[in-house]
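Record format v2
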Amino acid sequence: MGGLRRLFAIVGKEVRQLRRDRLTFGMIAGIPVLQILLFGYAINTDVRHLSAAVADQAQTSLSRELIAASQASQVVDIRARVDTARELERMLGRGEIDVGLLIPADFGRRLADPSRAAGQLLVDGTDPTIPASARQLAALELGYDSTPKPARREPVYEIRNYYNPERRSAINIVPGLIGVILTMTMVLFTAVAIVRESERGNLELLINTPVRRIELMIGKILPYVLIGLVQVTLILLLGAWLFDVPIRGPLLHVYGAAGLFIAANLTLGLVISTVAKTQFQAMQMTFFFFLPSILLSGFMFPFDGMPPAARYLAELLPLTHFVRLIRGIMLRAAGLGDMPGEVLALLAFTVLTLAVAVGRFRKTLD
Amino acid sequence: MADDYAIEAHGLTRRFGELTAVDHLDLRVPSGEIYGFLGPNGSGKSTTIRLLCGLLTPSEGEARVLGRRVPGEAEALKQEIGYMTQRFSLYEDLDVRENLTFIANIYGIPRRELRARVEGQLARYHLSDRPRQRAGTLSGGQKQRLALAAATLHRPRLLLLDEPTSAVDPQSRRDFWETLFELSAEGTTILVSTHYMDEAERCHRLAILDHGAIVADGAPRDLYEAMDALVVEVETADPRAAREVLLGREPILGVTQLGVRLRVLVERSVADAPDLVGRLLDGARIRASVTLTHPGLEDVFVMATRDAREPVPWEG
C-alpha cells in the first residue's frame, strides 16, 4: 500500500520532469524519425547505378552489344570510354569509377572458348557491396544468334526470395530498426536517470526518505515503457506509410515483443546508472553497449556469417533476440509462441539486470 | 536514558582513505534542544551529520539516534528524522507545491490529510503566494524555506540541518532562526551545523569542531566561563603594528583583528591584563585604548583551536 504510493509518487515526478525536459522530449520523437529516414532512404543494400568506364578494344558488334546489355542491367552507369586497361586502373585508383569494363581485342574468339573468360571487370574492392553487385554483371548473357551459348553460363539454382520478393531493403531494415532505436533511447534515458539525481543533489534527499530501492528503480523505468511503446508505434506507422513495410503477424505480438525488449533495455540502463559517476560516463557506457548491439545482433550483418565467439557474445545482447522476434512476427507472420527461446532470453535478461541494479544501488553515500 | 538524549555517539570515526574526517567523536544531544555544530569548512560537520542519519557508514565507533542504532536501523529512522542537505536538493524543475506533494507521498502522509498538510507548510513557510513557481527560480531564502518545509512535512522528532543558512541574506537568517525556535518549542530536537558565530550563540548547546574532533562543548555561557583566558580589547590607529608587537609575547595567547580593534586573549592568571597589554604597546610607542571585555564565541573558538593551527578566517 505505502509501497505502491511511493512508486506512483516517483512515476508522477518522472513524468512531470520529462514533460519539462525539452531535449529528452524531442529525442523521443526525433530519433525514430531521423533514423527511419536515414536507414530507409539512404541505406540500400541492393546497389544499382555504380559508376563505370569501358575500354572496348574489340570494337565489334558483339562487344557493343555487351556494353549495351551492361548498361541496360542498371547495375552500372557507363560514364566514360577509354582505350586501355591502364586508364581504367587509373580511374579506379582516383575513385572516379567503381567498375571498369575491359573488352579485349580478341573478344570474339574468347567468347567461343568456354574455358576462358571473354571480358574483365575491374572492381573497387574497398567497398564490400560493390564486388557483390558487380557479380551480377558476370551473369549477363549475350542473346546474339550467331554466338554459341556456353553451357557454363546457365545458372544451377533458381532463387526464390521468400518474404521480400522485391528485395526491398526497407523491409529488412525497419523491423530491426525498431530494436536499434529502442536500444539507443531506452538505455540512454535510464542510464542517466539516477546519475542525474545524484549530480543535481536530489539523491541525498531521496535516500533519506523511507523510499525503497525497488520502488525507486521501478518508478524510474515505468514512464519510459510507455515512451518506448509510443516510439514503436511511430516507427511502425512511418514504416508502413513511407516504405510499405508489412505487419504480417499479430499486432499484439509486435507490441509484446517490443515490451519485453523495452524492459530489458531499461533495466540495463539502470545498471549503468548505478555504475556511472557522471551523466557523461553514463553516455559513454551506453555507447559502449550500443555498438556491439548494432554490429552483432544480426541487424546489419547476417548472424550465421559471424565467428563462434562473436555469436556467443551476440546471444548475450537483447537486440539479437529482439531482431529475431520482430522479423519473425512482422515478416514471417510468426507469433511469440513460435520463438519461446527468444522470449525467455529477454525475460531472463530483464530480471537479471534489475536484480543487479537493485543490488548495486545503496541508500548511502559511502 | 534513550529519552534524555536524542543522539548519543561514542568514538564515532570516519576515514576517507588517508583523511580522517571525523575522529573519535563523543556526542550527546539532549532531547528537545537546539544543538549547534560550529566549525570551519572541512572540520567534519557534514560528515558527522551524514553518519548520524545513516548516509555514511562509520569506520569505527557507534551512534544511537532516537534510540536506534545507526547505520543498522537507519531505515526505521527515516520516518522520524528530517534532514536538510547543505546543497538545495529538491527538484528544481518541479514547482513548490509539486515538490511538497511528492515528499508527502514518499513519507506516506495519509491521503485525506495530505492537501491540508501541504497547504499548512506553504503558509507556515511563507510560500503560499508562489505555489506554482518552479523551485529552480526561487531566491536563496525561498529555497531554504522550501527545504525546511519539506524536511518538517512529516513532523520528525529530530531535525538534522547541514549549514542551512550558508546561502541566504541576514534577514532570512533571522527569520529562519525564529522558525527553529518555534519548532524547538513544539518539542523537536534540532542539530544544526553552521560557521556563523552569531548563529552558534543562539543554540542551547553547541560543540566546536576542529579537524574532525570536538574541541569544546557546552552551553554558550558555560563555554565563556570555562575559558582559560581574559579578553582585552585594543583600539588603535595602527592595529597591524600593534598585533605584531603583541603576538607571541609570554602571557598573550592570541590576537584577532576586527577592523580597527584587536581582541587580545591573555592568560587567565594574569591579574591586570589591560595594564599589561597597555605597557607592551607603550614600549613599542603605540598609542591605544585598552579595556577588559566579555568573551565571545569567537574567543572561545580561538582558544579551543589554538594548539592545532592558525584558525581559518570567518565569513560571518
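Chain B touches chain A through 30 residues (CB under 8 Å).
The first strand of chain B starts at residue 5 and ends at 16.
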